[in-house]
Amino acid sequence: MALLVIAIVVGIGYELVRQSQLSMEKFGLQFWLTDVWDPVSEVFGARTLIWGTLYSSILALIISTPIALGIAIYLSELCPASLRQPLAFLTELLAAIPSIVYGLWGIFVLAPAVRWLELHTPTVLRGFPLFTGPPLGIGMGSAALILAVMIVPFSSAVAREVLKSVPQHQREAAYALGATRWEAIRAALFYARTGIVGAVMLGFGRALGETMAVTMVIGNTRHISWSLFAPQYSMAAAIANEFTEATGALYLSALIEIGLVLFIITLAINVLSRMLIWSMNRQPRPRMAPALVPATGERA
């Protein structure tokens, strides 16, 4: 069964490579590095899409990680027993909401709220690249916020289970040494650090592949900008919007290559996260000095 999972991943990669062969032969690595996307002239480049996907996912990770860890710490360490299960259920309920419902909420509730914030942004902040542009409400800021809401339940649920699996004697040992409650929680966090990193990376992978909710609030404009106000685009949104319109073979091949690029980026991030976890798990082996017999000086 484990080999079957590997075979499925390899099969997906093979099919993506095969179907995007036409685009790869014509554009090569320039597909990753150029911004032009012109179906009429059949010139395609995915750099703006790669930027929008990574930028929105990283912003969502920055926003959601402290919230998810705070929820996990409260539910596993501080919450009264009578409230723990209801609050955990409500948090996990966010993961059951369909993506299209998040998108509708983003259009009718989140986007107007973001636009209000953009209108009331202090003038001194508008000189920074993050806060330039017209206050539209639809753009990178809205996409990052809706992604953060969507990945919080995944990261918090895994982090909570990891913290619950920390042996109780770790906390008892910290209290025995005179630690405060916060210091005991820090000790538990350090013990569970590899699992927490895994929870965060799970949320990051979820954000990279999100489609409908992001499509409805990101603005769908091929433009590279640091601004949170600027409408931008993502790879998953481009595939969802344009796949049915791809009439030419090269156009369809370029869209499939976008899927291949997203597949490669997702695999690369997962490999890097596994390497990070492996480096955190690696413990130096203590060197044992050879014992000497005092009377003769010989090695024991």
Structure description:
With 300 residues, the protein is mostly helical. It has one domain: MetI-like (MetI-like fold). Helix content is 68%, strand content 1%. It has 13 helices and 2 strands. It has helices spanning 2-19, 21-27, 30-33, 47-78, 81-93, 99-119, 140-164, 168-176, 181-191, 193-208, 212-217, 235-242, 249-281, and strands at residues 37-38, 43-44. Strands 1-2 form a two-stranded antiparallel ribbon. β1 (37-38) and β2 form a beta hairpin. α7 (140-164) packs antiparallel against α10. The longest helix is centred in the last third of the chain and has 33 residues, at 249-281. The relative contact order is 0.16.
Sheet with the most strands: spatial strand order: 1-2
Cα gyration radius (Å) = 24 Å
- CATH hierarchy class name: Mainly Alpha
Low-confidence stretches: 285-300
For this structure, the CATH topology is MetI-like fold
Overall tally of domains: 1
Helix content: 55-70%
Number of helices: 13
Give the biggest beta sheet: 2 strands, antiparallel
Task: Provide mean pLDDT, rounded.
Answer: 86
Q: Which geometry do the CA atoms define? A: globular
Count every beta strand, where a strand is a DSSP E run of 2 or more residues.
2
The first-to-last residue Cα distance is 50 Å
- Measured by DSSP, the beta-strand proportion falls in under 5%
CATH superfamily: MetI-like
Class per helix and strand makeup: mainly alpha
Q: Can you write the helix and strand succession as a string?
A: HHHEEHHHHHHHHHH
Q: Label the CATH architecture.
A: Orthogonal Bundle
